C-alpha cells in the first residue's frame, strides 16, 4: 500500500515536518509504503528564502548563538535502513557563543541557512536514494481534493496525486497597502524617483543607479528589516563602521564616496527597538524564576480552561505585570531610583503595556528624542545605565514568550480575544524582538555623522512632490528621491495574494480564525473548514491559532510532531 505526503514549502518548518514525519513513520506498527513530495519554489531546501545561505552578510539574526538552542536529529531506522542523525546548531557551529569580551554573538542569517541546508541534505540524499523523497523547485498554484486524493498543480501545469498535504509556507505577499499603491502611481509618473516595495533581497535594492552620494533615501519602517537595509546601504556604498569602545560596541561611521546624502527612516509610532542585553550575565537579571513561570502557567491554564468567560487579554497582562514587578524589584540598585510598592509597579506595567506613551519616572519617556531613547536603551543593555521599567518589561516578556507560545496556542477564546493576544504580542516586539547592541550603535553612529535623520520619524505626513517624497514640510532636506518599504507583510490570510492561498480559501479548504489573522487549525495541524480533509497548515499562516510564528525555535518542536504522528495514523487508516 503506497501513501504519499506533500510538503509545500521547505524552509525550517518544512524540514522539521519532513524529519518528524519520517520519525513517526519509523515507529509505525502497520507499515505502509511511504512517499514524500516536497515543493520549494526558491530552491533553498531547508533554509527557505529567509535563511538562504547565499544572502548578503548585512542580514543578521536577532537571536544570539547562546539562545539558538536548536536540538539535533537522532538516527532514524527506516525499515532497516539507517538515516544518519545531525548535530544541534551549537555542536555544528562549535563553541563560539561569546567572544573574548563575554559579549553575545549574533550570527548572520546566512550562517543559520548553511546549517539548515546541510541538515536537509543529510536526510534528503539518503531517502531520495531509497525512493522515498522527490523534491521540486516549483511553485504550487492549486490543491484540489478529488476522489479521496489531493491533486496538486504546479506553475508548469504538472499534476501530482497525494494522500496528505501540509503547508509549511513562510512569508507570503499580500495586497499592497493604499499608501504603497499611491507611491507606485507617483513613481510611474516621475522618472526622478525610485520605489522599492520590498526590502529583500537587499542586493536587488542596491543594484540601482538611484543609490549614490546625492541620494536621499527614505525607509518606511523602523524595525529589524530597516536595520538590515541600512547595513546594506553602508556595505554597498563602501562605507564602514569602526568600533571605538569594545565593551559598549560604540561606533563611528565613515561614509564612502557613494554614501547617500541622507537616510530618513519613519514609522507609525516613531519609537525605536530596544536591544537585547549584551551578555548572559545581564540577560539573567531579567530571567524569571521557575516559581514565577509556574505562576504564569497556572494563570494561563486557569483562563484557557474557561475560554467562554474571557473577554479580553487583561488576564495575561495582569499575570505578566506581577512577574515583571517582582523582577524589577529584584534589580534593586541596578534599576532607576523609586519607592514604589509592587502593586504600584503592577499598575504602571499594565498601563504601559496597553499604551506605550504612558509617562512615569520609572519609564523612558516617549517624549524624548529617538536618539536619546536609543542611547538610554543601549546603556541599559550594556549595564552602563540604570534599568527602566519599560526595558525590564520587554526583557522579562521575551523570557516568558516560550510559555505564552506553548499555552496560548490552540486556545478556544472568542475571536476578539485571540486577536487581542496576537496584537499585544506583535506590539511588544519593539521591546522583545530587538536586535543586538551593535545594531543600535550603528544607527547612532549614522545619526552622529549626520547621515541619518530621525527628525521626521514619527508618522510623517508624506507629500509627493516633483523632487520626491517630502517627509517634513518645514525641511526640504527631508525630500527623498528613493523610498524603501521595509515593513514586512503580516500573515493575514485574507490579504494573501498567492494563487494557492486564494484557491484554498475560495474552495473552502481553509478559513481564517479571525478576519485579521491566519488559518484556523486543530492541534494536529489540520485546517478547520466545512470539509474534513487531511490538509494541514503549520507555521506563519496559522497565526492566531499559533503564537510565535516568526520565532525560529518554534519551527522545530511539538507542533510538527503532533501533525506527523496524526498523519501516520491517518495513513494507516486509523482514526485520528
From TrEMBL:
Coiled coil spans: none
Superkingdom classification of source: Bacteria
FAD-dependent urate hydroxylase HpyO/Asp monooxygenase CreE-like FAD/NAD(P)-binding domain ranges (all copies): 6-172
InterPro entries associated with the record: FAD/NAD-bd_sf, HpyO/CreE_NAD-binding, L-asp_N-monooxygenase_NS-form
Protein name, as recorded: FAD/NAD(P)-binding domain-containing protein
Species of provenance: Postechiella marina
Lineage of producing organism: Bacteria, Pseudomonadati, Bacteroidota, Flavobacteriia, Flavobacteriales
Amino acid at each position: 500500500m503506497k501513501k504519499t505526503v506533500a510538503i509545500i514549502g521547505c524552509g525550517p518548518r518544512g524540514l522539521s515536518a519532513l524529519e518528524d514525519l519520517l520519525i513517526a513513520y519509523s515507529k509505525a506498527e502497520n507499515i505502509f509504503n511511504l512517499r514524500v513530495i516536497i515543493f520549494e519554489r526558491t530552491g533553498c531546501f531547508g533554509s527557505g528564502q529567509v535563511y538562504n545561505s547565499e544572502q548578503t552578510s548585512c542580514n543578521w539574526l536577532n537571536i544570539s548563538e547562546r539562545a539558538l538552542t536548536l536540538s539535533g536529529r537522532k538516527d532514524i531506522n527506516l525499515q532497516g535502513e539507517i538515516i544518519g542523525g545531525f548535530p544541534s546548531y551549537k555542536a555544528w557551529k562549535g563553541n563560539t557563543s561569546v567572544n573574548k569580551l563575554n559579549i553575545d554573538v549574533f550570527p548572520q542569517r546566512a550562517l543559520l541557512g548553511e546549517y539548515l541546508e546541510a541538515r536537509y541534505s543529510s536526510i534528503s540524499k539518503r531517502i531520495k536514494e531509497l525512493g522515498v523523497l522527490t523534491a521540486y523547485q516549483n511553485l504550487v498554484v492549486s490543491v484540489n481534493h478529488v476522489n479521496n486524493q489531493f491533486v496538486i498543480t504546479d506553475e508548469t501545469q504538472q499534476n501530482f496525486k497525494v494522500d496528505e498535504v501540509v503547508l509549511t509556507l513562510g512569508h507570503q505577499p499580500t495586497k499592497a497597502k493604499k499608501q504603497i499603491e499611491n507611491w507606485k502611481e507617483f513613481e510611474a509618473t516621475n522618472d526622478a524617483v525610485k520605489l522599492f516595495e520590498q526590502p529583500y533581497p537587499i542586493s536587488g535594492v542596491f543594484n540601482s543607479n538611484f543609490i549614490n552620494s546625492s541620494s536621499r533615501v527614505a525607509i518606511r519602517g523602523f524595525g529589524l528589516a530597516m536595520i538590515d537595509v541600512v547595513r546594506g546601504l553602508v556595505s554597498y556604498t563602501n562605507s564602514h563602521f569602526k568600533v571605538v569602545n569594545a565593551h559598549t560596541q560604540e561606533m563611528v561611521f565613515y561614509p564612502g564616496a557613494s554614501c547617500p546624502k541622507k537616510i530618513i527612516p519613519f514609522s507609525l509610532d516613531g519609537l525605536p527597538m530596544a536591544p537585547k542585553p549584551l551578555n548572559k550575565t545581564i540577560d539573567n537579571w531579567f530571567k524569571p524564576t521557575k516559581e514565577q513561570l509556574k505562576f504564569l502557567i497556572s494563570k494561563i491554564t486557569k483562563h484557557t480552561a474557561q475560554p467562554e468567560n474571557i473577554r479580553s487579554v487583561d488576564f495575561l497582562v495582569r499575570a505578566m505585570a506581577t512577574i515583571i514587578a517582582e523582577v524589577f524589584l529584584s534589580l534593586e540598585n541596578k534599576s532607576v531610583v523609586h519607592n514604589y510598592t509592587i502593586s504600584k509597579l503592577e499598575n504602571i506595567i499594565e498601563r504601559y503595556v496597553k499604551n506605550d506613551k504612558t509617562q512615569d519616572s520609572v519609564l523612558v519617556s516617549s517624549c524624548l528624542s529617538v536618539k536619546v531613547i536609543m542611547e538610554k536603551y543601549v546603556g541599559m543593555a550594556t549595564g552602563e545605565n540604570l534599568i527602566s521599567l519599560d526595558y525590564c518589561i520587554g526583557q522579562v516578556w521575551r523570557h516568558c514568550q516560550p510559555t505564552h507560545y506553548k499555552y496560548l496556542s490552540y486556545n478556544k477564546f472568542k475571536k476578539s480575544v485571540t486577536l487581542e493576544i496576537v496584537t499585544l504580542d506583535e506590539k511588544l516586539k519593539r521591546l522583545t524582538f530587538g536586535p543586538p547592541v551593535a545594531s543600535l550603535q550603528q544607527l547612532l553612529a549614522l545619526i552622529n555623522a549626520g547621515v541619518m535623520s530621525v527628525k521626521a520619524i514619527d508618522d510623517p505626513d508624506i507629500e509627493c512632490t516633483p523632487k520626491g517624497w517630502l517627509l517634513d514640510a518645514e525641511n526640504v532636506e527631508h525630500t527623498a528621491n528613493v523610498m524603501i518599504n521595509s515593513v514586512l507583510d503580516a500573515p493575514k490570510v485574507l490579504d494573501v495574494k498567492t494563487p494557492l492561498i486564494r484557491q484554498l480559501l475560495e474552495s473552502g479548504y481553509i478559513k481564517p480564525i479571525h478576519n485579521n489573522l491566519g488559518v484556523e487549525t486543530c492541534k494536529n495541524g489540520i485546517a478547520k473548514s466545512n470539509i474534513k480533509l487531511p490538509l494541514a497548515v503549520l507555521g506563519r499562516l496559522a497565526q492566531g491559532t499559533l503564537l510565535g510564528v516568526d520565532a525560529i525555535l518554534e519551527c522545530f518542536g511539538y507542533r510538527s510532531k503532533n501533525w506527523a504522528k496524526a498523519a501516520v495514523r491517518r495513513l494507516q487508516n486509523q482514526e485520528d
